[in-house]
C-alpha cells in the first residue's frame, strides 16, 4: 500500500478502536466521532478489518472489503462488531479488556484475479502480500494477508479459505471460483 497513514493517524485510529471496544463490551454507546476534528485521510471513505487477540490467540475479527464509511467510523464500528458479533466467539466481557490487543488492517480496493484453470490459481497468489476473497454463488470468505503467517502454502491457504466459506475444502481445485485480491496496511497497539 503506497498511501500509508502517519504514526499520528494510526494512533488516532487505535485509540478510537480501543474506546469503541470498551464501549461495546460494557454495552455503552460508541464514542461520538467529530469528523471535522480528524485528519483528512481519516475522514475519507475507507475499508478496514479490526482483529482482536488475547494471549496471541484470535478473539474476534470483523471488517469490510468495500469502503462505504469514513475510515474513522469504519474502524469504530468494526472494533465493536469484533467484540460482540464474531460468530466464532462469545462476546468480549469487560474483565477481558486489559488482555485484548487490537490490530487494524486498512485495505486497498479488491481487484479481480483473472485465471483460466483452477490448477493455475495457487500459483497466482503472492503469499504474505495478498489478502484473498473467494466467491461461489452466495458463499464468500476472505483471509487477510496476515493469515499467510500461519498458512504459508498457497494450496493449504485456499483449502482453509474454502472451509471458512462453508464449501468443500477442495472446491477451488475442481471449479473456477470468483477470486479477488487486496493488500493491507496493518498496525497494532504497542503494550507498554
Distance between the termini: 28 Å
Structural class: alpha+beta
So what's the overall shape?
Answer: globular
- Please give the share of residues in helix: 25-40%
What does the main sheet amount to? 5 strands, antiparallel
Quote the beta fraction. Answer: 25-35%
CATH architecture of the largest domain: 2-Layer Sandwich
Low-confidence stretches: none
Number of domains: 2
Task: Give the C-alpha Rg.
Answer: 17 Å
H and E order: HHEEEHEEHEEHHEE
CATH topology of the largest domain: Glycoprotein, Type 4 Pilin
Number of strands: 9
- What is the level 1 CATH name of the largest domain? Alpha Beta
The helix count comes to 6
CATH superfamily of the largest domain: Hypothetical protein ph0010, domain 1
Mean pLDDT: 95
Description:
With 192 residues, the chain is an alpha+beta fold. The chain has 2 domains: 7-107, Hypothetical protein ph0010, domain 1 (Glycoprotein, Type 4 Pilin, 2-Layer Sandwich); 111-183, Hypothetical protein ph0010, domain 2 (Dna Ligase, domain 1, 2-Layer Sandwich), CATH 3.30.1490. 31% of the residues lie in helices and 26% in strands. The protein is built from 6 helices and 9 strands; from the N terminus they run H-H-E-E-E-H-E-E-H-E-E-H-H-E-E. Strands 1, 2, 3, 4 and 9 form a 5-stranded antiparallel β-sheet that branches. A 4-stranded antiparallel β-sheet has the order 5-8-6-7, with helices on one face. A hairpin with a 2-residue loop joins strand 1 (45-54) and strand 2 (57-63). The model has no long low-confidence stretch (mean pLDDT 95).
